[in-house]
């Protein structure tokens, strides 16, 4: 180790900088001296994104993509089969490698590999594009807690986007505080429970909304959860979510925020109403002004009102969509432009793996 750090250290550093992440890990396993040197001077792993999927109780699937398109993704499946732990590398490629471990726990093996990856990420210069964790069974709630415990011991995870599919806010809070504030721009939360209505589970944002990560982000999309207090979302430029209840006072405050501040660009929220006709009539009467009835791309009935913003050339369009959806948009984009701009990144959520 002493020889490496003195006589050949600068040469070894240059060699490591030219290696991809898997090659570096292979070198770590080749000798005690190399492991000590690499752990003392870890190279930039150049990670573009990390995706974890926990679809069944006996399996964790991790995919790591790299900034260099010529470097193949690292995909590893950790699973329990017949009392043993099976680790499969490159499961989606032809270079599949499988190892069986007799006395190891698959979650512990995943945590060991993830902690090594985290250690290297603390030396990454460029932020990652995305980190996504998808959980489909409550059995893995404890896995989120273990990941959070590992993240709490290192530098904040530098990612521009976070996508979490979870059961409850506790799983979000296990991860969210350990993301790099200011770097994080896009937030995506989704309810993992299947076969329920979106109104059946409320996401309590009280603690989350106090964090710098929340306050400094630009966009948020929350699916299949309901939330409260629209005021917690006014610093975002784009919002899509469902409120358990929303009053005319809330709607008016949102409209006021759009007209006063140029930060909000797009809000689409749900507003509960018993009947479409009563809802449209009530909101339009309360808000006043002229409304135009039209059909959207899916031929669904909606009403539009356009309000000029004093002091500049901006205009705020208010849409009342079918039944209970309200949309506010600055300098209204066409639906095609909006879909591309708002959902282009998030649509990859179902195609991550």
UniProtKB/TrEMBL annotation:
Residues 144-272 form the DUF38 domain. The gene is Cnig_chr_V.g22011. This is DUF38 domain-containing protein.
